[in-house]
Design goal:
Biased composition (Acidic residues): 172-184
Helix content: 55-70%
Number of domains: 2
Radius of gyration: 28 Å
Region (Disordered): 162-184
Length: 184
């Protein structure tokens, strides 16, 4: 089979064209997957919005979850609270002693429970990161199981309500005539 006439048909040029085609194919496939993932994420955000969860909350939760330094989101929250108090939009937490100031005093046990519960609720791996068999490990695993159990118990009802609400938007199915012939 003779090579198509494309101009320079040297071995070097053919190799370059084929290599370019190879990377273009990969790039095209990656772009299609990214578009698909983007559409899926958009649909998830719309469903969350319909359930009363704003995208900004999901963005914040994901950013905090992915933070390498878990203290950074806490420090940012403190600064945001100070700014809101400074503007008079919320009571000053340092004076009022509200919930935020108590967050500063959460003990280690409370933090371990919260992390384990979050991991179970969100379907993460059942690995605490603490020494296996230690009190912290057992506490984390217990909290993980509680979070996982709550998710598994509650999600079927939540999804059923979402599906029921969605089906109410669809036209009724069946042979019932919505305008039966009757007396005029």
């Amino acid at each position: 089979m003779p090579a198509a006439t494309i101009g320079d048909n040297s071995k070097e040029e053919r190799t370059r064209r084929v290599t370019l085609a190879h990377y273009h194919r990969k790039d095209r496939d990656l772009d299609a997957r990214a578009a698909s993932i983007s559409a899926e994420k958009k649909e998830n955000r719309l469903n969350a919005k319909a359930a009363g969860i704003p995208s900004s909350q999901l963005d914040h939760l994901l950013k905090s979850f992915k933070a390498e330094d878990q203290q950074k989101p806490v420090d940012k929250l403190k600064r945001d609270m100070e700014n809101l108090a400074y503007l008079g939009l919320i009571p000053d937490p340092s004076i009022k002693g509200d919930l935020f100031s108590r967050v500063d005093r959460v003990d280690n046990e409370g933090m371990i429970r919260a992390k384990g519960y979050f991991a179970g609720l969100n379907g993460l791996d059942r690995v605490s990161g603490y020494d296996g068999g230690s009190a912290d490990d057992k506490l984390w695993l217990e909290s993980f199981d509680a979070g996982k159990s709550e998710y598994e118990t509650e999600i079927p009802d939540i999804m059923a309500r979402i599906e029921a609400a969605a089906s109410k938007e669809e036209p009724p199915s069946g042979d019932d005539d919505p305008f039966p012939d009757g007396e005029d």
